[in-house]
Amino acid sequence: MEFDLTGEHSKYSYKLLAGLVVPRPIAWVTTLDETGIVNAAPFSFFNVLGTRPPIVGFAPGDRAPGIPKDTARNIRRTGEFVVNLVDESTAGPMNMTSAAIPAGESEISLAGLNTTESLSVGPPRISEAPVAIECKEWATMEIGRNRLVIGLVQRLFVRDGILDPETLLVDTDNYEPVGRMEVPAGYCRTTDRFTMERP
Fold first, then answer.
1. Phi then psi for 10, rounded to 5 degrees?
2. In tens digits, what is the pLDDT along the chain, a chain of 199 residues?
3. What is the distance of C-alpha 58 from the center of its chain?
4. Domain ranges across the chain
5. CA angle at 176 for the pair 170 and 178, rounded to the nearest 5°
6. C-beta neighbour count of 160 within 10 angstroms
7. Which CATH class name applies to 22-189?
8. Burial of 180 by CB count in 10 Å (0-12 exposed, 13-18 middle, 19+ buried)?
9. Which of 25, 94, 130, 195 is 20 to 30 A from residue 83's alpha carbon, by CA?
């Protein structure tokens, strides 16, 4: 099968790309609104983009054409956000925070979560998350109706037991990240892994 995503098949871009480019890590982003209420929302168009300097990027789609989601609006106003990563123990609460709720309410309360104060940015991290990445906005780029947020990583928090304290390598027995799979509701566990030595 072949698709022209610049022409006749462009309306299928999301379904095809979000379904085929998998698994994707999930950025569970916390920001602060104008009144200090914590907004938490998951985004699967996300990844680490480099390490010198350390940067991450995620793409929060618009709520409606030309109207940014609360996460993007909060970041443009404050220039700060936290990317919390998702594991099996937090998958359910993460999914709950994807619900549309009235302005002035926090997804944190809705999902029964807790927050911990960040050290380098205003928005707090999600206490239950296995990893939290404090970021300052480097740029937000608008490409057509896409919005790409690039963040400079300031500080990293990792739950005890995930990293070997000597090597700083991940202990895969203690880290069970969840990935995003096919739309509309597919996810995957990462418990079936294998290694290949580089040639």
1. -60, -30
2. 999 999 999 999 999 999 999 999 999 999 999 999 999 999 999 999 999 999 999 999 887 787 889 999 999 999 999 999 999 999 999 999 999 998 789 999 999 999 999 999 999 999 999 999 999 999 999 998 899 999 999 999 999 999 999 999 999 999 999 999 998 999 999 999 999 999 9
3. 7
4. 22-189
5. 120
6. 7
7. mainly beta
8. buried
9. 195
